[in-house]
Write a structure and sequence with these properties.
With 284 residues, this protein is mostly helical. It has one domain. It is built from eleven helices and two strands. The protein has a two-stranded antiparallel sheet. The N terminus is likely disordered. Its main location: membrane.
Length: 284
């Protein structure tokens, strides 16, 4: 006498070894194709920091240096380069992913994916892979424009480039999970941009992206220092600017330990919130 085991209709088949990784690779390809076809993502996420840097560098090219001491100087275009590098990772992670995932939930894309053998981890690895590729290309384009069009000099010390690398990738992970977490806030596709973009814009203004951080009121600095973007911008400035730029920082010191601590804490917070709140199906 034979028996047939039954399982709940919503249960997924057992995942074979390597299936998650193969699905993730496929998802990266799909995500990149979809990204390149979205004109709003290309303009307001990929090209936006490059365009803003070009505007700022052109407008402030003849403005006196922010600081000049011991034969070193920090010009306005120099100051905006690390700011736009930080903004690029932030916009791609928090703003773009937040809007993208919220829209996919609202239009039923996530519900359709839930009916496939696609693991949740593969879905998110696809998003992170797309984020990695696009932010690296964006950073390369921004540095190329800065050096070839505006004649800025890049740092030559290996330590500075190593710092740039770990701050960049730590920020990428942090902003990716925060983007997933923020995507749970909008309740419809039409409200996704209206909810996420103002939050992103406010965070940029208080984090020293468009204005030097030390010109902000102390109470705004205190709020910004509770958020990750201000620390990413601080780490980027350490990597890209002459050491004299530390006199433009709070306390006139570099605080890379603070950068690592803040990004680590926010990555953990974002991961926990995303894991607890993510749903394939739109909320009622």
């Amino acid at each position: 006498m034979s028996t047939t085991a039954t399982r709940p209709a919503d249960a997924r088949p057992r995942i074979r070894p390597g299936h998650t990784l193969r699905c993730a690779v496929d998802r990266v390809r799909v995500e990149l194709l979809q990204y390149m076809r979205r004109s709003d993502a290309l303009v307001f996420t990929f090209l936006f920091p490059v365009l803003l840097f070009s505007i700022f560098a052109s407008a402030f090219s003849d403005v006196p240096a922010l600081i000049e001491l011991d034969g070193q100087a920090v010009t306005q275009p120099q100051y905006y380069l690390p700011a736009m590098l930080a903004a690029g990772v932030f916009l791609s992670g928090v703003q773009n992913l937040g809007i993208e995932i919220a829209t996919e939930r609202a239009d039923g894309t996530l519900q359709r994916l839930a009916a496939t053998p696609l693991p949740v981890l593969s879905y998110f690895l696809g998003k992170v892979g797309q984020l990695l590729v696009t932010t690296l290309l964006q950073a390369a384009l921004l540095l190329t424009v800065a050096t070839t069009v505006f004649g800025l000099e890049l740092p030559t010390e290996p330590e500075r480039w190593l710092t740039l690398a770990w701050v960049f990738f730590a920020a990428l992970v942090c902003f990716a999970v925060l983007g997933v977490a923020i995507a749970q806030i909008p309740r419809s596709a039409s409200s996704a941009s209206a909810v996420v973009i103002p939050l992103a814009l406010v965070m940029q203004f208080i984090s020293g992206i468009y204005l030097p951080f030390t010109v902000l009121p102390e109470w705004l600095q205190a709020i910004a220092n509770l958020l990750p973007l201000a620390w990413v911008a601080h780490g980027m400035r350490y990597a890209m600017l002459p050491d004299v730029a530390r006199h433009l920082e709070v306390g006139e010191v570099w605080n890379l330990a603070g950068v690592a601590t803040a990004l680590g804490l926010w990555a953990v917070i974002g991961t926990v919130v995303a894991a607890l709140t993510f749903r394939w199906i739109k909320r009622g």
